[in-house]
Amino acid sequence: MIWNPTKECMNAEDKRRLQGERLRKAVDRVYHGVPFYRNKLQERDLRPDSISSIDDITKLPFTTKQDLRDNYPYGLFAVPMSEIIRLHASSGTTGNPTVVGYTRRDLAIWSEMIARCLSAYGADRNDIFSVAYGYGLFTGGLGLHYGVEHLGATVIPMSSGNTAKHIQLIRDFGATALACTPSYALYLAETMAKTGWPRDDFKLRIGIFGAEPWTENMRKEIEAKMGVNAYNIYGLSEIMGPGVSHECECKCGSHIIDDHFYAEVIDPETLEPLPYGEVGELVLTTLTKEGLPMIRYRTKDLCSLNPEPCECGRTSIRMSRIMGRSDDMLIIRGVNVFPSQIESVILELEEFEPHYMIYVDRQNNLDMMEVHVEVRDGFYSDEIKVMMELKKKLAARLHSVLGINADIKLVEPYTLERSEGKSKRVIDRRVLK
Ligand code: ADP
Ligand code: ZN
């Protein structure tokens, strides 16, 4: 079902007009409400009335995570604190947390956005959702929670952790939908299998996974192990939280909620906008946010955009999967390597579990990459020869995809640490001199 057809299926011209009007209001809001933006705009001789259409967005300055840190905690808020009714903080994957604030209207919009996402996944008020993102400062838990309520479905506020109990409640409460990180979904699936309870005891049919990069192969793996239809959800706290974009039944890119967020993809070096289809850094502008409006926020997330209307009937612009963050790209012996490439290779081969760790070291001034991978039950062997063959196979495949050699360490099933929230897969021990 399409939750809000007026907005989700708007024709291109009307959408652009709406975005243009909203951008102008957003610029007006920051010009008058946020000294940081007023200074930046004045430096460029820009005023709210410099915006006459959405195309004028390229005149505007970028905002970075550093700007949020420099104005910590509330410097970029555009309303007095009396109008802020909730705070969240980003999980700090890449440094100190940043604080984000929401007005009552922001929270209402966020809930409606999530209801749109959940409808696109085929959920309705008869569904029972287990929300296993962390509740708290992280936007995942409460973000999904209020969206499920807005949809009119039932929410089980599970939060993350306590896996055995969680599985029991999924079964006992007849949960039909599960929201968590893809890495946690795998762990749950694995633990479910170990309970020995028949698959029919579980009613799960929809999985809502995001907050960290994942691949098509990982989707297949989760779908097979858990018996759900797995969908991607994307978002970031600086812009709102989860629900900035979502997949639909076509699973061919994620629809950006583009009546509230305007998306561009830029070359992270030259900062010039890139044509549709090319991979670059996603830049998002909030068109309606009151508490913490963001103008051309550089997400560091790498993806491409597709403006073609989708078979599902939605006309909103779609983004590809996130290929990685521009700042989590590893440069190993001069070669660019994304952890997601390594994950894809591991998942292509049936002998391995999608559990791995990447260690990077520098020995004698040479970068060394070591990949620890779990061998799947049934493929693990005490025979050295068998394991050597397996190692060779993976090393050769990694070499052909990445163009560099990696040392492989095969480990027994269920020995690598599982994550309950965002997984950490790379440990870079290089000391940069
Ligand atoms: P932090 O930057 O501290 O991790 P957030 O908790 O707001 O802050 O996380 C947002 C980031 O999580 C995004 O910028 C993106 O890198 C990642 N992310 C969120 N959803 C997805 C997704 N579906 N696919 C890939 N990456 C995602
Ligand atoms: Zn669609």
Question: Could you please describe the fold and organization of this structure?
Answer:
This protein has 433 residues and is of the alpha/beta class. It folds into two domains: 1-327, Rossmann fold (3-Layer(aba) Sandwich), CATH 3.40.50; 330-428, ANL, C-terminal domain (GMP Synthetase, Chain A, domain 3), CATH 3.30.300. The protein is 31% helix and 24% strand. The chain is built from eleven helices and 21 strands. Strands 4-3-5-6-7-8-9-14-13 form a nine-stranded mixed β-sheet. The termini are far apart. Bound molecules: adenosine-5'-diphosphate (ADP) and zinc ion. Zinc ion binds at residues 248, 250, 255, 310, 312, 314.
Count helical runs. Answer: 11
Report the radius of gyration as a whole number of Å. 22 Å
Chemical compounds bound to the protein: adenosine-5'-diphosphate, zinc ion
Count of spatially separate domains: 2
Question: How would you name the CATH homologous superfamily of the largest domain?
Answer: ANL, N-terminal domain
* Strand line-up of the largest beta sheet: 4-3-5-6-7-8-9-14-13
SS strand fraction = 15-25%
